[in-house]
Specification:
By secondary structure, the chain is α/β, with parallel strands linked by helices.
Length: 756
């Protein structure tokens, strides 16, 4: 609509100009042809030298008027041509859903004239307007490796999705870590009209590993050089972005700049905004060769088809080999090599206006790129200091970045109306399942939660794990929300083995957790803890989904299924590893029970042995877990026998049994229908029993529940009658499903429930 209005204004302005400029001009000339109220002839044939009115000044005046007439006629000719073009493009403005125009700024090879005209160019509505089709797919390539870069990519993608009005196709050159994280994230994000393709960065290492690189990005900082080989051969153009980029406008505006490339221009780049390539930052500073200030490669427009025809691979390799003979290594990774190639072949570059890459490094000249907030298009945090960089307006830039960092990604799951999306099997299945639910059912929200797809970011922080040589390692598995963060440090002190945690957080809370973790010496010293963020959505706490996420992403053959508000005894990790061998857990279906106790004291002198625990139990400092409110949950553990036991002993399943167990990693998942409070662990233990797991109590193991305020979900359970009714309904349906799945053997669960 905006493009249509601008087109009409342009058409009207041109028409009025053609009509009125000649008239005004001739009135002016006619009025100027009178002297003393009498007409003066403009024809040179009629103006005789002997005329008394003829003077040198009047001759000059007539000559200047004749020049003006010719100028006006030339202007009219140009305006008629523009009007003709506007009319020929007229139907395009009425195609509605088929096309959209974007106001675009002119790039130039002259950086000074560029900076002088930046504000006018940035706000221009009536300049040249290359067309980007409404449903045209925009291709974006990003090189991403590791845990931290994966987090950065999410913020970049959020900023792009926030402004976009076109389908997007992201080409991610990723290592194994980033691929695992981002594949899960986008699969669970389910953003319409977004396609993701991955390319194995590790396979590309051999292409660039021969280039010594001092830049902090390492070998992955060189991989943009090989995109012509890596990306599909039928892909003609792509926007290449660094992970530390934030968009402040629709990326389609940048995509439209491709229409301005002429001749042999194949690279769209912004001039480097520091003095790095001028070589005057310090004594003996010797940068790679570049044209003037050189170009920054944080944002690149690549015409892939032309680059391939130009033999880009051969071009950059020969240049790199030649320069490395004297430079020995790159300082700014791919950027040095791009600039060396451009130095020899300046015709390759189309210089983008500098607001397409406002560079916030320490020695930046980026302040000359903008005069107002509306001038900003792309912000590039290209300093190792990132948000701590020194800049006159860094607070504004930081706040803009934080806006997207903490923005609710679920709000970006919006359809692009008028643009057909590719068929997504997962999305179609989800819609089918939801359509089969009865919205008038009083338990509809409970049933719906079972099918809700929660956006999931695996390994939010750096993770390292080396498998144990004896194949007996055990991972502690738990889930938590923001109000249990204080338990993390204590658990890490009690359990030295690997931990897998699923955290249920909003986008803003995820950043609070990140700051909390980075500020904790205890947490930062532990690299064998996997933090998996499951983003909030809906009104229930999806406790069993969280457990499943944490279970699925363990690296050990065994797991200890715990809860975040329990502290394991000191040494439990090593004790469990020995028990795994002793009880042959690798070849038998056993669930090893760790007896659970609790204290009502916030400050507890934690027992260092079983004997000390029994003493505290006798003194009333400790209790068996939930003995006073939910005895059935742990009664089958047989605490009386445990007091004197010195060897493991077997117990039988009973109704409502919910112990904490150690099992192999291939044990069944938790049932997702149970959310919030009630029956979430009970159902899982019931299924283990149905699959003929043996429940074995460990005689020298224990865990203690620490006190905390009641959760929101238990409060809802206690105060909301409908909540309790729906939970009872879900229990009955689960038991019926068990009977159908396990047959006659599962009838005991119905009998036990009726007798309890």
């Amino acid at each position: 609509m905006l493009g249509m209005c601008r087109g009409r204004r342009k058409f009207l302005a041109a028409s009025l100009t053609i009509l009125f400029v000649p008239a005004i001009t001739w009135i002016y000339l006619f009025a100027g042809s009178f002297e003393d109220g009498k007409p003066v002839s403009l024809s040179p044939l009629e103006s005789q030298p002997h005329s008394p009115r003829y003077t040198a000044s009047s001759q000059r005046e007539r000559e200047s008027l004749e020049v003006r007439v010719r100028e006006v006629e030339e202007e009219n000719r140009v305006l008629r041509k523009q009007l003709s073009l506007a009319q020929s493009r007229g139907p395009a403005h009425h195609r509605g859903n088929h096309s959209k125009t974007y106001s675009m700024e002119e790039g130039t090879g002259d950086s000074e004239s560029l900076r002088a005209g930046i504000v006018a160019g940035n706000s221009s509505e009536c300049g040249q307007q290359p067309v980007v089709e409404k449903c045209e797919t925009i291709h974006v390539a990003i090189v991403c490796a590791g845990y931290n870069a994966s987090r950065d990519v999410v913020t970049l993608v959020k900023s792009v999705l926030f402004h976009r009005r076109n389908p997007l196709h992201f080409h991610l050159i990723a290592d194994a870590i980033a691929k695992q994280i981002l594949a899960t994230l986008f699969q669970t994000w389910m953003v319409p009209a977004v396609r993701i393709d991955f390319y194995d960065a590790d396979e590309l290492k051999s292409e660039v590993s021969w280039i010594p690189n001092k830049h902090y990005s390492g070998i992955y900082g060189l991989m943009k050089l090989v995109l012509t080989k890596t990306l599909p051969s039928n892909l003609e153009r792509v926007i290449v972005l660094d992970t530390d980029i934030t968009f402040a406008t629709d990326i389609a505006e940048l995509w439209a700049v491709f229409h301005k490339f002429k001749g042999q221009q194949v690279l769209g780049l912004v001039e480097n905004q520091s003095d790095w390539y001028l070589g005057n930052l310090w004594k003996n500073h010797r940068p790679w060769p570049a044209l003037g200030r050189g170009y920054n490669t944080g944002v690149i427009l690549l015409l892939l088809d032309k680059l391939r025809k130009m033999k880009w691979e051969q071009m950059w390799r020969l240049t790199a080999e030649r320069e490395l003979m004297s430079m020995l290594s790159t300082s700014l990774a791919d950027q040095d090599i791009f600039n060396a190639v451009i130095k020899q072949n300046p015709f390759l570059v189309y210089q983008l206006p500098c607001f397409w890459n406002v560079q916030l490094s320490d020695h930046t000249r980026s302040e000359q790129c903008y005069r107002d907030v509306s001038d900003l298009k792309v912000i590039h945090w290209n300093s190792p200091k990132k948000l701590r960089v020194k800049n006159k307006h860094v607070e504004f830039f930081r706040n803009l970045y934080l806006t997207f960092l903490e923005y609710d990604g679920n709000l970006l799951r919006r359809e692009l109306f008028g643009c057909p999306s590719e068929a997504d099997v997962n999305s179609e299945n989800l819609q089918k399942q939801l359509s089969e639910l009865d919205e008038d059912d009083l338990c509809y929200e409970f049933r719906r939660e079972r099918f809700t797809v929660h956006r999931t970011h695996l390994y939010f922080l750096h993770y390292e794990y080396e498998p144990a040589s004896d194949n007996t390692d055990v991972t502690l598995v738990a889930q938590l929300s923001m109000d249990r963060l204080q338990m993390l440090e204590a658990i890490c002190k009690h359990w030295e083995g690997p931990i897998s945690l699923a955290l249920y957080l909003s986008d803003a809370e995820a950043q609070q957790f990140l700051r909390y973790a980075q500020g904790s010496e205890v947490l930062m010293s532990r690299h064998n803890v996997g933090y998996h963020i499951v983003y909030k959505e809906g009104q229930f706490y999806p406790v069993n989904l969280l457990r499943n996420v944490a279970m699925k992403h363990i690296s050990t053959p065994y797991m200890f299924l715990s809860d975040i508000d329990f502290l394991p005894m000191y040494g439990l990790y090593e004790y469990l590893r020995k028990s795994v061998i002793q009880l042959d857990l690798a070849n038998t279906k056993k669930a090893l029970i760790v007896p659970a106790f609790e204290t009502l004291r916030y400050r507890l002198s934690f027992p260092k042995s079983k004997a000390e625990l029994l003493s505290m139990l006798d003194m009333g400092t400790l209790f068996t877990f939930r003995y006073h409110v939910w005895t059935k949950g742990h009664a089958p553990t047989n605490f009386a026998k445990w007091r004197t036991a010195t060897t493991p002993y077997r117990v039988e399943w009973e109704a409502d049994f919910e112990p904490y167990v150690v099992v192999r990693k291939d044990c069944p998942e938790y049932d997702r229908r149970f959310v919030g409070f009630g029956w979430n662990k009970v159902a899982h233990i019931m299924e283990l029993d149905a699959q003929e797991y043996e429940f074995t109590v460990l005689p020298n193991a224990y865990m203690i529940h620490m006190p905390h305020a009641p959760s929101f979900d238990i409060t809802k359970f206690r105060s909301n009658k409908q909540y309790r009714i729906c939970l009872k309904t879900l229990k009955e349906e689960f038991q019926q499903d068990m009977s159908r799945h396990y047959g006659f053997a599962a009838l005991k669960y119905l009998t036990a429930e009726n007798n309890s």
